[in-house]
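[RESIDUES AND BACKBONE]
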Amino acid sequence: MKVDLIAGARPNFMKIAPIIDAIIKAKKEGKNIDFRLVHTGQHYDKNMSDNFFKQLGIPEPHVNLNAGSGTQAEQTATIMIGYEKLLLEERTDLCMVVGDVTSTMACSIAAQKLKIPVAHVEGGIRSGDWSMPEEINRMVTDSITNYFFTTTEIANNNLRKSGVEESRIFLVGNTMIDTLIKHRPRFQKPSFWDKHGLQKGKYVVMTLHRPANVDEESKLKELLDEIIAHSQNLLLVFPVHPRTAKILKKIGVEHPRLLMIDPLGYLEFNYLVENSYAVITDSGGITEETTVMGIPCMTLRDNTERPETITLGTNELIGTDPKAIKPAMDKLFAGQWKKGTIPEWWDGKTSERIVDVLLEL
């Protein structure tokens, strides 16, 4: 059985790495399974990609479609054209996509049109917010997926409501947590740690990149002003997304406790998170990692596709209104933040379960 593994953007690398490990292990044991790693090149920064691949032990992609940047439609079209050409030259038995980036949707469509079945790792998650490109990607992908590998029973219920038969749904857990558990002993202190005198539990990590928070200059400035004003004397460590960096430069936000740094590698960023007092983010994946690490997390969004991080984990959704930050920070510093638990099946063995299912199929 030959499986195409599709990766297009940074979050995909973390989800695909343990699946590669599990396939290689099964193949060494004599099982009839192999893979072709297809990097669509949707997001490609050589330094960042090379760093991620090296840190996570991901082999060199068999194919790079070099899709590059562009509008949503341009990227979708370029990836579909490139992947269709690859499949016409050399078919595969299964197209496996992960997450919810443009590459996930585009490769699913190209595969199905050539009658190649599709498996979606992290299928069934929903935010209900159609203004997010990721939500459209999820819905389109799941509408043409054959096999769903899900993270929680919440995702299963979303699929059942949309008419997916039980026989096509497999609750396996979270491959991103496989990566976290495997590499946790190897987390690395960032190079700036000693220079800026960082200490465990004495700083807050921030990540902001969603348009609702960063595109409107006055809104971003107000958010940062509120966070700075109500974070007591803690240092705010802010790895800045390149898109956000341009806006920050325009509005000129500076403060002695605001440490803006370049994006970090996987091992350095998670070292930073694991040793922080708390995390403020608008990312989905980070809320899963903080839940497993037991770090308080406040999410500056009005909705989330990962409700289990709120019902079970350490995450709370506080919305995008800057005025919501003070009460959340007051609760945090009063020691009233919930402790949280880890969802079932988030045990580091998800990828092994996926491969077991593939071999049965």
In short: The first helix runs from residue 10 to 28. The mean pLDDT is 94. The first strand starts at residue 2 and ends at 7. The chain has two domains: 2-174+346-360, 190-333.
